[in-house]
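R.M. (postdoc): so does anyone remember the format we settled on? I'll just put the structure tokens first.
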């Protein structure tokens, strides 16, 4: 009889423990949101199926980057046993000011027209944001930038409007003061590294003939802003001028960027077939 009571006690303890467990999901609309529960740092959102004490008040603190968001969130949550609720945290963007220094121009931010910049009208209030797309245009004279716009400071942006002839505009796209070849040939032609390098050296679009092969860092910047390229990207990787030898000095490699998934890898310069998108400094 004693053994039966021990077995029943173990079973009841197991069932009671299962009844008194609770979990929580925490998601956030802000990047790099750090989550604290009852004074313990549990990582960055999203937090999925994190075990908490059921039926008790839990102090939640969510900390965000004040360069881009107004304030942290501090609140109390309570989770019933046998549940997995999701708490969705909504942060407001902070306001930021930009002082534009340059010629008169029409201002577009994230492709939305803001206003015409003139001598007495050069400070603009916007939402703070990373990688903000900024276009300035005056007829065919224009420039395009991607900048981090921070709150709690006056962001000063100097710019120069660049007139790109029509025969050049048809075959190039500009991103952050770099002019990229934007042709169907760049999207669809497979080529080894040596031929790609010579192709960029010999490329001439209208009067521009100082094109070169991009660095792997420039390809990353282009990947971050790939919507700026009209003709898109093929399914192959793109070559860079970042090169090195294998440990046993058997093969020469180039760092390459895959524009489908953003992965960076290496390919053999002599044998592998990739694609090239030439670039020049503006």
């Amino acid at each position: 009889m004693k053994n039966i009571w021990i077995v029943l006690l173990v079973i009841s303890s197991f069932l009671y423990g299962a009844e008194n467990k609770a979990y929580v999901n925490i998601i956030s609309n802000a990047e790099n949101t750090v989550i604290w529960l009852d004074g313990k740092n549990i990582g960055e959102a999203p937090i999925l199926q994190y075990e908490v004490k059921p039926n008790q008040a839990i102090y939640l603190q969510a900390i965000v980057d004040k360069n881009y968001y107004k304030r942290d969130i501090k609140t109390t949550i309570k989770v019933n046993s046998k549940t997995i609720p999701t708490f969705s945290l909504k942060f407001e963007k902070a306001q930021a000011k930009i002082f534009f220094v340059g010629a008169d121009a029409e201002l577009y931010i994230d492709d939305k027209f803001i206003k015409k910049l003139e001598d007495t009208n050069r400070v603009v209030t916007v939402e703070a944001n990373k990688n903000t797309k900024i276009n300035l245009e005056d007829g065919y004279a224009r420039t395009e930038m991607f900048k981090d716009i921070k709150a709690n400071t006056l962001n000063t942006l100097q710019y120069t409007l660049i007139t790109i002839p029509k025969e050049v505009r048809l075959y190039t796209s500009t991103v952050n003061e770099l002019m990229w070849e934007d042709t169907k040939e760049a999207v669809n032609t497979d080529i080894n590294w040596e031929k790609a390098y010579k192709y960029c050296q010999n490329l001439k679009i209208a009067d521009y003939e100082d094109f070169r092969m991009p660095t792997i860092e420039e390809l990353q910047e282009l990947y971050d802003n790939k919507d700026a390229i009209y003709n898109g990207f093929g399914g192959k990787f793109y070559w860079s001028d970042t090169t090195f030898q294998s440990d046993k000095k058997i093969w020469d490699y180039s760092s390459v960027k895959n524009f489908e998934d953003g992965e960076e890898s290496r390919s053999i310069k002599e044998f592998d077939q990739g694609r090239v998108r030439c670039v020049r400094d503006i």
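R.M.: ...and that's the designed sequence above, right after the tokens. Also worth knowing: The domain at 180-281 is CATH 3.10.100.10 (Mannose-Binding Protein A; Chain A). The chain has a mean pLDDT of 87.
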